[in-house]
Amino acid sequence: MKRREFLRAAGAGLAASAVATPAIAQSMPELKWRLTASWPKSLDTLFGACEDFSKRVAESTDNKFQIQIFAAGEVVPGLQVLDAVQNGTVEMGHTAAYYFWGKDPSFAFATAIPFGLNARQQDAWQLRAGGFELLDPLFADFGCYGIPMGNTCAQMGGWFRKEIKTVADLKGLKFRIGGFAGNVIKRLGVVPQSIAPSDIYPALEKGALDAVEWIGPYDDEKLGFYKVAKYYYYPGWWEGGAHAHLLINRSKWNGLSKSYQSIITAAAREAGVGMTARYDYLNPPAMKRLIAKGTQLRPFSAEILEASFKAANDVYADMGKRNARFKKILDSIMAFHRESYSWWQVCELPFDSFQVRMLRRT
Amino acid sequence: MKRREFLRAAGAGLAASAVATPAIAQSMPELKWRLTASWPKSLDTLFGACEDFSKRVAESTDNKFQIQIFAAGEVVPGLQVLDAVQNGTVEMGHTAAYYFWGKDPSFAFATAIPFGLNARQQDAWQLRAGGFELLDPLFADFGCYGIPMGNTCAQMGGWFRKEIKTVADLKGLKFRIGGFAGNVIKRLGVVPQSIAPSDIYPALEKGALDAVEWIGPYDDEKLGFYKVAKYYYYPGWWEGGAHAHLLINRSKWNGLSKSYQSIITAAAREAGVGMTARYDYLNPPAMKRLIAKGTQLRPFSAEILEASFKAANDVYADMGKRNARFKKILDSIMAFHRESYSWWQVCELPFDSFQVRMLRRT
Asked: Each residue of A270-288: pLDDT tens digit?
């Protein structure tokens, strides 16, 4: 109150709109940043999360902090987001960190690992069970600060031109598969391919690929895979809850005021909830449409799932012997995995299972 | 840039720390608000979400917007949060809206209804499928603005002194049960009781109650129910994903600047993710401890689940005939429920089921 009275007195006669305290000027400077995404604009689930985030930051700062969003290829290609943020080409990126497992295999844990955590577990591990703290030094090694921003939820196992029933059917299959999982599936004879989303369809159409996985019904429908591959397999055991990440150039992050850091963190987490909710809202009708267009749903056979499970554990054991950080993070995630699913089987799974049982009756 | 130069010129000779533009003064005034929770401090899951929220708002506003948190009973009792916010006794509250279903049965939809949505579905319905827009006029009728802030996830079915196997075993059972579900379970002969958390244990100990349900292992362990009732049933079919709400006095909300509204919304949603993650992190070890202390896990029998399912649908049909708003929101939630579980059975459920199957093998 006193301060306001003093303000009025001090400000009398001045063009009031043009005066600010240094304290406020420091904490709320005008900033224009750029964010490059790994996704095309058409994927409004993933790209939409970036737009929600940018809008929230602008609204929370009276439009002082503006973040312009670029689709994959506008500034850098979709799989070069980490480099672009690290080099300072842009201040921010939105990507799946597991694309960069070739630089360091521990990047896989930030997104999803085969037979790993589901969406809520991935949140709980990162926010409460030490996951964020384990991943932070990894992002720091690459000049970034990483905040989870959105989960795709359990993904589908992808589109196959032919039915696959046994492990033998996988031999020699050219399969576009995201992230670390290629490592696992090649032990089953698959030839994994890493391709950014906008290049997948042409490769599948030309026959350079036998199968592709991307995310789930809504995004996959937009990319058109159903037109050239009929069999849609489930579940995508290599990404039961894949987290996207907001990456921020670390020195840019460190240069922000505490209030801007706070606004960004809250906005990223909120945009993450919004992205997950968008998937949960948009996938069900998309699945219906795909089935109406002739898509054939197929579950992976027990033989394939169990062989994949064994292959994943073999890869983890090998990688863990060669890389201490990988081993440390793997141990943390797997301890949480065991504990969490012990509880999940008591409460969530029986609830959902009963709901599905009743649904099938009506 | 020009504006800043003008600032320097205009500000010369003034005590700089005491000058602010009206624009900034309007959007970032110093505010001290109070939030009353329906929970005791000891429930650091629910109460913790309020603290996270308040901390985030303070950090995002350079401590200009301070929200003081009060536990149940400090300002008003736990079940009077809606009245306190509506009357302006406090500016904000954190509660489960379904406590107030007696004022209007549609409040049930804001939190959870029997055989309703799971946690992620509840988010998706509220954020994307029109749930927020349907609930907003209801909150407005009670002078509030409501933002979902945290989900308890699927809850347990509660603590029973004796085993219950059949619907006949439920007859005359005095059962503390939260929210709208009492309406359903009384059709099975149960005598439902609505009691705030801190009063439940004494009632159970004295034998004034035969059974209680609260939330899940972590909170229930704190409230000590395992000491007086041995059988712990699952799943809590009346709250498969119960949303807590941040309630804000509506005229206070309307008086806030857009940036403060934005900061509050993001902080509430972020605190919500944090609360859910806390449950997912804390429940598993709590369940282990309870079992070590002699708790006996029991699933509700198919007979009881199916009778409850039928009773719930009967209640919905009756209530829908008498109350147009109830019918309208019910139709929205049930359409989403059907669509969402049609998809859930394809992707999430098979993923989680396989994980649990492998867990049991090792």
From this structure: 999 999 999 999 999 999 9
pLDDT band at residue A194 under the 50/70/90 scheme: confident
Q: Do B62 and A27 touch (CB under 8 A)?
A: yes
B305-315 burial: b if 16+ Cβ within 10 Å, else e: bbbbbebbbeb
- Range list of H helices, A170-301: 181-185, 197-206, 217-223, 250-254, 258-292
Q: What is the pLDDT of residues A58-95, one digit of tens each?
A: 999 999 999 999 999 999 999 999 999 999 999 999 99
Lookup: tokens for B66: 């301070």
B10 touches chain A (CB under 8 A): yes
**What is the reported pLDDT for B8?**
43
Checking if the pLDDT of B14 tops 80, the result is no
From the list B234, B273, B350, the residue facing A350 with the nearest CB is: B234
A236 near A181, Cβ under 8 Å? Answer: no
Q: Can you tell me the mean pLDDT for B311-315?
A: 97
Residue of B7, B119, B277 lying closest to A127 (CB–CB): B277
Mutate which: B21, B126, B310, B362, vs A, most A CBs within 10 A = B21
Residues B130-145: tens digit of each pLDDT: 999 999 999 999 999 9
**Which residue of B238, B287, B347, B362 is the best one to mutate when testing the A interface, meaning the one whose CB has the most A CBs within 10 A?**
B347
Residue showing tokens 């709590």: B286
The mean pLDDT of A106-130, rounded to a whole number, is 98
Nearest CA-CA partner of A170 in A300, A299, A310: A300
B189: left (phi over 0), alpha (psi -120 to 50) or beta: left
**C-beta neighbour count of A132 within 10 angstroms:** 16
Q: Where are the alpha helices (DSSP H) in B99-157?
A: 107-111, 119-127, 131-141
Q: ipTM more than 0.85?
A: yes
What's the half-sphere exposure (Cβ side, CA atoms, 13 Å) at A302? Answer: 3
d(CA B249, CA B247): 7
> If you measure CA to CA, which chain A residue comes closest to B217?
A343
Alpha-carbon distance values, B281 to B148, B270, B287 (Å) = 20, 16, 11
Q: A19, A297, A345: which to substitute to probe chain B, counting the most B Cβ within 10 Å?
A: A19
> pTM of the full predicted structure?
0.92
Length of chain B: 362
d(CA A289, CA A296) in angstroms, rounded, equals: 12
3-state secondary structure of B50: helix
> Residue A206's CB: how many other CB atoms inside 10 A?
9
Residue of chain B nearest A232, judged by CA positions: B346
* Widest Cα–Cα separation across chain A: 84
Is residue B124 within 8 A of residue B249, CB to CB? The reply is: no
Contact A128 B17 (CB under 8 A): no
The answer to whether A231 touches B350, Cβ cutoff 8 Å, is no
Q: Which amino acid is present at A350? A: P
d(CA B104, CA A341): 38
**Chain A neighbors of B124, CB-CB under 8 A:** 276-278, 280-281
CB pairs under 8 A between A and B: 296
Q: Which residue among A23, A129, A280 places its CB closest to the CB of B17?
A: A23
d(CA A284, CA B345): 11
Q: Which amino acid is at B22?
A: P
Cβ–Cβ gap A273/B273 under 8 Å: yes
DSSP 8-state assignment for residue B156: P
DSSP code for B306: H
Q: Give the list of residues 6+ apart from residue A290 with CB closer than 8 angstroms, or none.
A: A217, A220, A221, A226, A232
SS3 B128: coil
The predicted structure's pLDDT at residue B27: 63
